[in-house]
Amino acid sequence: MNRARVRGIDHVGLTVRSLEEAIHDLRNALGAGLCYIEGPIQDPEPGWMARKLGSRGSCILRVAAMNALGTNLELFEYAGADRRSWTATAGEAGTFFLLLRTPRPERIVSRLFTENAVVRPVEEPVFGYEIALPSGIQLAIQRSTSGDEDAGRLIGAVCLNRYDYQGAVSELQGTFGLHQAGEVTAFGASGVLLTGAHGAQLAVLHGHSPSPRPANSDVGGHHVAFHADDVDASIDALRLAGGYAARGDAETITEGPIAGDRWVYLDSPFGLQLELINMPDGMLPYEAEAETRRRPIAAGVLA
């Protein structure tokens, strides 16, 4: 077991302008399936969202979970006076985008032109397309090469400034047990692809044009969630590792589509918002009627 006592990446999360627009775009572009929608969620007490999630003051939150090509996505939509739009361009430090490598990227792109997506062809260093979906989600689709083991997997990509980039790559490998599986260049940013024994992959890039990071409640806010068999033990392990600060105590959701989920958010020493989560897949209320389910962290590992 790694120092953080985690299995791997459970999901990546992104704050969007509209859940409905984002769900439509991801279904159309990637064939993503909707697992559940949760909310609206309000502060159970004054300041709870700011403390626990890193929002800008009190907001109303809705959450959608999707399974996109086997990668769990969590979409946030905040409503409230303190919500801000994030105007940075994909590839700049502080931004997030999705990356897909596929043998025939033009097949995906061909159906996006009628959806008012902004599509920019890219020839170098990898042929593909950089796309701004109408919902604001940024997507890079690149042609995979023969034998590319990552082809067909949707990858979350985070862009950090040059100081945080080095720390993130070191910590995600040394503390969280990920390892380098290749290199990535997209939207003018370059970095590494990290993977673990279980769960999703993550591209960590050295972003250009350093800028402040968005809050969780800002459109463009994002986080990376790691599955922990014991969330509280992982909190303690990361405190001992140093530089990680949990946003309060871990909490267990007691009602709604994911009752039984135990979670806590953390601030990391490299500027990326993290989450520790234990989602008891196979025992969640939403699964009784869902057409699409989340991908468990590893088939059989948590059975």
Quick overview of this protein structure:
By secondary structure, this protein is an alpha+beta fold. The protein has helices at 19-30, 48-53, 105-110, 162-174, 231-241; strands spanning 8-15, 33-41, 60-68, 71-79, 96-102, 118-122, 128-132, 138-143, 154-160, 179-186, 189-195, 198-199, 202-206, 222-227, 245-246, 251-252, 262-267, 273-278.
Present the secondary structure layout.
Elements: E1 8-15, H1 19-30, E2 33-41, H2 48-53, E3 60-68, E4 71-79, E5 96-102, H3 105-110, E6 118-122, E7 128-132, E8 138-143, E9 154-160, H4 162-174, E10 179-186, E11 189-195, E12 198-199, E13 202-206, E14 222-227, H5 231-241, E15 245-246, E16 251-252, E17 262-267, E18 273-278
Parallel strand pairs: 1-4, 5-8, 9-13, 14-18
Antiparallel strand pairs: 1-14, 2-3, 3-4, 5-9, 6-7, 7-8, 10-11, 11-13, 15-17, 16-17, 17-18
Please give a handful of descriptors for the protein shown:
18 strands; 2,3-Dihydroxybiphenyl 1,2-Dioxygenase, domain 1; 36% strand; alpha+beta; 303 residues; 9-stranded mixed β-sheet; globular; 8-stranded mixed β-sheet
Question: How would you sum up this structure, described in words?
Answer:
This protein has a single domain, classed as 2,3-Dihydroxybiphenyl 1,2-Dioxygenase, domain 1, CATH 3.10.180. The longest helix has 13 residues, at 162-174. It is an alpha+beta fold and 303 residues long. The protein contains five helices and 18 strands. Strand 7 and strand 8 (138-143) form a beta hairpin. Helices cover 16% and strands 36% of the residues. The radius of gyration is 18 Å and the shape is globular. The strands form two sheets. Strands 1, 2, 3, 4, 14, 15, 16, 17 and 18 form a nine-stranded mixed sheet that branches. An eight-stranded mixed sheet has the order 6-7-8-5-9-13-11-10. It has helices at residues 19-30, 48-53, 105-110, 162-174, 231-241, and strands spanning 8-15, 33-41, 60-68, 71-79, 96-102, 118-122, 128-132, 138-143, 154-160, 179-186, 189-195, 198-199, 202-206, 222-227, 245-246, 251-252, 262-267, 273-278.
